[in-house]
Amino acid sequence: MPFIPPADLPPPALVQTVSTATPDEATPRSDPSDRAATSSHQGRPDPAAFSAPEALTRPVQFSDIASVIRATDVPSLAASATQAQFLQAEPISAPLGLEEASAPPSQRNFASIRAPWVSQLGDRDAAPDAENVPNPPPPDQAPQTDTNSDEDEVVEGDDPESSTTLDEEEDGPVYPRAATPERDWSNGAVVDGALLTPTQPTNRPPTPLNLTADYQEFEPQTQVLTAQGDVVLRLGNGILRADRLWANLANRFVVVDGDVLFTRGEQVIEADRGEYNLIQGAGSLFDARGTLFIPSAGSDLAGDLTPGTTDPDILAADPINNVEGTGNLSFGTGLTVPSSASGLPQPTAGGAVRRFRFEAAQLDFDAEGWYAQEISLTNDPFSPPELEFRGNSATLTRLTDLQDELYIENARLVFDQSFTVPLLRDRILLTRGEQSANPLFVTFGYDGTDRDGLFVERSFEVYRAGSWRAFITPQVLVQRLLAGEDPPPEDESFLSNLGLEADVVGLLGPRTSVRFNASFSGLDLQNLEDRLRSSVRVRQLLGRHVLNLEYSYRDRLFNGSLGFQNVQSNLGAVLVSPSFRIGDTGITFSYQVAAQYITADTDRLELVNSTTPPFRASLGRFQGSVAIGRSFDLWRGEALPATPEEGLRFTSTPRVPNIRLALFGRGTYTYYTSDDTQDDLSASVRLSGEFGHFSRDFFDSTVFNVTYTRSFVSDAATSPFFFDRNVDSNRLSGGIIQQLYGPFRLGFQTSVNLDTGEIINTDYVFEYNRRTYGLFLRYSPTRSAGFLGFRINEFDWAGRAPRFGGADIREVEGGVLQ
């Protein structure tokens, strides 16, 4: 548009710019003809270097000719802050270096104001009307009228009474067509502007916007906002940073480009370029990467722009630091529970990994989920990652408020950027607040007592309603299928080679959970009495205490030298206390009480009604037990730094060399309705420790423990049952795990009855440990049970990362169920 002196016409579309340049260097830009002069000044970015898509730069169509504003209507600018009424007539302050409007735009200077700006805006109703101008612009210079628009169109705001037609505003100021026209967009600095959430109208409060940049422009007629140079946009509870930003306020479309960084809640996403539609809550990120925290990803990345709190420190490009192992997710199946006093690592299935890094060639997202191309996920905070989960594409679809479905095309695990293992499972259900799903197609287990050795299983969810879920887990008893059953049943059937686990879990209330389990070690139902084990357990929280209500059928317990014992039926309740600390003494104590009605094997024939095996007695059992303990640090070394070359080379947590001494005592009294009693007073002393940091290649990790336990039991006061009879009153246990080379460790844990010399139990342990994952095998020939599993470690960290470059056996110790 050619320049026309303001005596006859207003200047072209009013544009205010913010720059870090000096007044002598800075000139405003009001039409494309000025770009050459503007970009010739050093110290400011060239606006022509960043342009929005042509289809998105259409000017806003007005239903009539807008009222005009004199150049003298531009508000004065203060050096520290802008007191701006965008269309309010005020005189221009000469000391700020604004020349008369008679000069052509390319020759005008403008005020130098350092970003960020602070704008204090008034409401529309409080703003005085603009000064009337006697000479309107000719039709060829005025904004074009949209002949297809409805002349009675209403611009909606938060207050229905403020809604007016554009015709009614013909003689008043023209405001940007934002979602809430009561607010102003002042001088290119969008500070107190407001956006409605994608669903309009809404009763929610407006979402605050705050934009700072080295250089900003706003054209009110086209409703286009441009910002360049260290752009930081605070939108609701999110923070967006980029080199350049372009926004069309009419259709609510935003484009960012150059070192894009978006953080909201716990999520941190980087990209080379991004597009976002504020109305639809949808967008795309190109060459995306970042960090996702799964538990809050659904709410953090939702289209809702609810105000909240996000830590702005994440904008700093700090390297990865404060790396800390916070847990792990273990896949596997096993039927052994190591002794709680073993002191060695105890693999168990379960857990969760909640924080991931990701990369994707393109990431498209909306309120229903997201779609990624060429995606890679890793739990490793360092690059190149040791373990990657890759797919040609991935789609996350929200099914309910608590459940998402993740579909991965050509899913595979990549170890050390070279070795690839395909995953046969392409769909995973993710439920917030629950343990992560097992991505492996099948899992393996070993049970020599009920299933004759090795078996393979796969779990399926078959029912879900509210907090209730049901699972079935078919099993193939591989070793029984190949070698036969020992001893063979009288009615042999092929179905005996198949097993099944059925589980139902749910909540009866916020502090009450229920779990039902039925385990079939063979599907030949003619032998159902020997195949089925089942239980129903209700867990009720009572303050810090836990009340367990239980009914079980053929429960299997391991009682030291007496081995496995079956409890035919058990109905009762057990109250378990938390661990209490006595002042500053370091002494802890806990207790539990139980009341049960039990049918189990016995050698007391006077309690048995039958004269033929099996000999079982049914008695009431009442028990109270108190445990006390104290541990001492005899020596403690220093951990290596949490870096991939030192402390985190073969472990998720830097190892701390140490030697510890622990003293324990326990007293137990049990009464049976046969007028029998069993009392036990035991004392234990344990020496445990760890040498090395598990960082060097050879013999840099040695974990050991030695425990001696002495029980004082009255010979005249013993249990009438086998399953809780205390027969190991003088025992010694110990174990060691030794690094052999690199990530490989080998060890054992054993326990011996010193009175008889009988080995109570021995576990053999083999481990392959890396920072992000591990393979482990644990096998007990005494129990004929084992655990084979795969572990994925979870980390928490600070800073921004670079690119990628079964347990159903419970124990009895001292007559107390553990």
Provide an overview of this structure.
By secondary structure, the protein is mainly β. Among the domains are: 16-251, no CATH class; 444-542, no CATH class. 3% of the residues lie in helices and 45% in strands. The protein has 4 helices and 40 strands. The strands form 2 sheets. It has an 18-stranded antiparallel beta barrel. It is elongated, with a radius of gyration of 37 Å. The relative contact order is 0.09. Residues 1-202, 305-310, 312-317 and 334-343 have low confidence and may be disordered. It comes from Leptolyngbya iicbica LK. Pfam families: DUF3769.
Write the layout of secondary structure elements.
Layout: E1 16-18, H1 35-39, E2 194-195, E3 207-212, E4 215-219, E5 224-235, E6 238-248, E7 253-264, E8 267-277, E9 282-293, H2 294-300, E10 321-334, E11 350-351, E12 355-366, E13 369-378, E14 387-398, E15 403-409, E16 412-415, E17 419-422, E18 427-431, E19 443-447, E20 453-457, E21 460-465, E22 468-476, H3 478-483, E23 498-509, E24 512-520, H4 528-531, E25 532-542, E26 545-558, E27 564-576, E28 580-582, E29 587-601, E30 616-636, E31 658-672, E32 677-691, E33 702-713, E34 730-741, E35 744-753, E36 759-769, E37 773-780, E38 785-798, E39 810-813, E40 816-817
Parallel strand pairs: 26-39
Antiparallel strand pairs: 1-4, 2-3, 3-5, 4-5, 5-6, 6-7, 7-8, 8-9, 9-12, 10-11, 10-38, 12-13, 13-14, 14-15, 14-16, 15-18, 16-17, 19-20, 19-38, 20-22, 21-22, 22-23, 23-24, 24-25, 25-26, 26-27, 27-29, 28-29, 29-30, 30-31, 31-32, 32-33, 33-34, 34-35, 35-36, 36-37, 37-38, 39-40
Pfam families: DUF3769
Protein name: DUF3769 domain-containing protein
Organism: Leptolyngbya iicbica LK
